[in-house]
Amino acid sequence: MYSRLKYFAFASFLLLLFSYSLQDIGLIYPSYFPKPVYDFKKNPLKSATVQLGRKLFYDPILSRNNTISCSSCHNSGQAFSHAGNHLSKGIEDGIGDRNSPAIFNLAWQKNFMWDGVIPNIDAQALAPINHPMEMGEDINVAVRRLNKSKEYRTLFYRSFGDSLATSERLMKALSQFQLTIVSASSKYDKVKQKKAQFTDSEKRGYLLYQQNCNSCHSEPLFSTYDFANNGLPVDSKLDDHGKWNKSFEPADQWMFKIPSLRNLGFTYPYMHDGRFKTLNEVLDHYEKGIVKSPTLAKQLEKPIIFNHKEREDLLSFLATLNDSVLVSNPDYQKK
């Protein structure tokens, strides 16, 4: 009898251990999206871990003075951007170096940050947590704080099978929540699904987009997520040279990650330093503001010029990429 109880206890333990390694939810995205590039085998999606990541995302406990959370610069109601702020804001009124990028459709991205310095989303959160002007905290101190919390010990147990918080588990939980943030419910998506139709103006704008923008902002994600020099004049105060800041390779001068055109209505201002408040200013740049340099994108060697009517049509199409379902989805918001 005792040996049988031991067997069942051991089997139950194995079953529990096995259950903590299994993916119990899948990433939901449309059939016309490409296959995600993120390797979910190394960090299988689990509802308990997603919920842990969601709580961590909204909790200022990860910042040095408990005032700044991930959501402070990535607001769900603004397509997880920091609309209206040209540079990120951190603890003690600190100002970061760049505009806070919108974080959706991350499962299709290989590199993170405007300069691509982070090659894996499972490590991305280290940058803002450790940045002295953003969250300003040592990751090990943040982990110790989590281990003192009864609530977090319970949540880590539900996610990983024991209650210990570690930096690796913290990163994986945050990435799991962020990976589930998929933007695929705009009017454009409804048209793709044959549930809606473009207006005449949107149709004309769609053609203009395909002729002038698609090579860098490829549909359906509306970005290749590669890096390009789009001819911006260098801001003398920030003196930001993009990828070159880390690599010092001449080919990386002024190369920044290409953002998605999705949700532009929620994510202003635009560019890596938030210098443009409106989309018309962006179009002005491509018409008459491009600075020539050896690394300038080939597509921009000639200015892109739209007349007034064409601008209206292009902006009408771009508005079809705004995803109101994303910004109002309770699954992405603070509980």
TrEMBL record:
GO terms for molecular function: peroxidase activity. It is found in: Periplasm. It holds the Pfam family CCP_MauG. Keywords: Heme, Iron, Metal-binding, Oxidoreductase, Periplasm, Peroxidase, Signal. Residues 48-150 form the Cytochrome c domain. It comes from the Bacteria. The keyword Magnesium does not apply. This is Cytochrome-c peroxidase. It comes from Chryseobacterium caseinilyticum.
